Structure formats: C-alpha cells, structure tokens
Amino acid sequence: MSDYRDVAYAAVAFGFGTWSFVKGFTSLGRKRLIENTPVSRVRGLALGLVELNGKAEKMKPLQSPFTQVECVFYRYTIEQYRSSGRSGRWVVIAKGDSSYCPFWLNDGTGRIMVFPQGAELMMPVDYEFETGLGKTLPDNLVRFMQGNGLNYQGMFGNYPLRFKEWFVTANEPVCVLGTARKAGDPVNDHKKRLIQRLDTIKHDPQKMQEADLDHDGSVSSEEWDAVVKKVEQALLEEELQASPQDHSTDVTIGLVAGQAFIISDESQSQMIKSLSWQAFLGVFGGAALSLAMLAYLLIRLGPWTKL
Predict the structure, then answer these.
(1) What are phi and psi of 108, to 5 degrees?
(2) What is the pLDDT of residue 164?
C-alpha cells in the first residue's frame, strides 16, 4: 500500500490543479465584469446591474462579533482542524454575518440602501486568530464561544481553531457591484425582514436555548410561536419609530438570482489588479500543475511500468 503513496499525492495535486484552473477562469470572469461595468452615480441611477463607489453609512447600531468594532456590515467564520488518519482539513463549525441589516452607500450625489445578504466579499480579513502551541485563546473569543454554546476545549487543551472576521466600518470607502431595483412594497419588506431575523435565531444556539422555556432540550411549536410574536412585535416597533430618512430612496441594491453581487472595501483598480493575479495563477499555474501530475500518473501507472 505504501508503494502507491506517491500516486495518492499526485492525484490530490492533480485535483487541486484542476480546481485552481476553474477558479482562475471564475476570477477572470469577475475581472472582465468589473472592467465592463461603468461606475454610476446615485443621482440619476438606472435600474439593472450597476457599480457604485462611495462611503458606507450605518442604518442601525452594529458591532462585529469578535472585536466589537462598530461597523455597518460584518461576516465571520470559525474553523476547526480535524484529523483523519495521516491527513486533516479545516472544517467550518460556525459562521454568520449581518446580512439582515442593510446600510447606506453615499457617493456625494445621494445615497442608496444596500442589502448585503448573499454578497460576495472581496476584501482582506480584518481580524484573524489561530490557536497553537503557547497561544492562549483571547477573552473576546472565549466569551463568543461560551455565549454561543460552542466547545473550544478538549481533554488535552484547546481545539485547533481558526477565527476570521471581516467588517466594513462607517465612513469607510466601499465599492458595490450589484443590481439596482425598485424597493418592494412595505408588506413584503416586513415579511422578508421577519424571516431573516427568525432564520438568524434558528442558527444561534444561545438564542434557541433561551427559546426553550421548559428546558427540555427542544423548542416546541408553542415556544416557537412565542418567539415569532416577540420578534414581530419588536420589528413593528422599529418600523414605526424609523426616521423619515430611512425611506428617502425607493431604489435598493441587492442580490438577484443569476447576477453578480460584490461588496469590497477596495477600489475598482485594486480589485482588477487582484483578480488579474488570481486569474493568471489559477489558469496557468493550475493547468501546469494538472498536466505535470497527469503525466506523472500516466508514467507511474502505465502498462510499460510492468515491463
């Protein structure tokens, strides 16, 4: 079995090269889309796929979950390294974002509401921490793990974990490429916001534990109905107390099926440069690696090797 270990490694490398090749063409498509979509202004904005540059402005108070930074949008992931035999891989054990909370984009000519749900982020990680030898898990991460019912310690100490957090702060330059469309009617908007908030609760272990009033380990239909009523009441109060400026535009930017939706804290030129390198390395590097590994496998496993 050990005689074919090199074959297994070559097969894995071939798969990685093929994946990189496909990923490179995806980056190339993104690059061309950004290049071919002219930058628009909020004033006089046409409906459809647009690209806007401006400053992010918050609509509601929001803090990033790990660092507690005041922001207009955040996303986070927690990964755990899991071994399997002699190999292992990073597995996402928790993730989340503030897609339920829209923010404003102000380009000086006006502002437009951005609904970040489903957006592809093109920005560097703002905060990252990985456990390791001699590293103590910071208090902020311990609080987050405990508050969300996530285990971070095993019999022999902390699990191998990796934390990543991205966020966009207020007044930070932001570039958004997405579909501009007329805002929906108030009834449908209310339903969407309610569904988003309930979905957030379903994926939050701590909030589901709080909903389990009789502490029997599960949330009954009666207990869930109580949660729905409480969330809807809070949402109605927010909507009634909303200031008039929150409804100053009837056009929003968000995700539309089949269309690109990108949020970045980089300029258009920076994104194009980054995507160019990704496309080059992916297409040519991936192709070179795949062909080299394929040639090796053919030589290694070909019928002539038995001669």
Answers:
(1) 95, -25
(2) 96
Whether 218 and 300 have beta carbons less than 8 Å apart is answered as no
* Euclidean distance between CA atoms 267 and 250, whole angstroms: 26
Exposed e or buried b per residue across 71-105, where buried means at least 16 C-beta atoms within 10 angstroms of its C-beta: bbbbbbbbbbeeeeeeeeeeeeebeebbbbbbbbb
H-run or E-run covering 100: none
The residues, any chain, with a CB within 8 Å of residue 12's CB and separated by 6 or more, are none
Q: Identify the H or E element spanning 195.
A: helix 186-202
Stated pTM of the model: 0.68
- Say whether 188 sits in a helix, a strand or coil: helix
Distance of CA 185 to the CA centre of its chain: 27
pLDDT at position 244: 43
Nearest to 266 by CA among 75, 48, 34, 63: 34
Closest CA to 206 of 275, 127, 148: 148
Q: Average of pLDDT values for 185-193?
A: 69
Mean pLDDT, to the nearest integer, of 50-58? 92
Ramachandran class of 149: left when φ > 0, alpha when ψ lies in -120 to 50, beta otherwise: left
How far apart, in Å, are the Cα atoms of 237 and each of 23, 224, 231, 240, 241?
A: 45, 20, 10, 5, 6
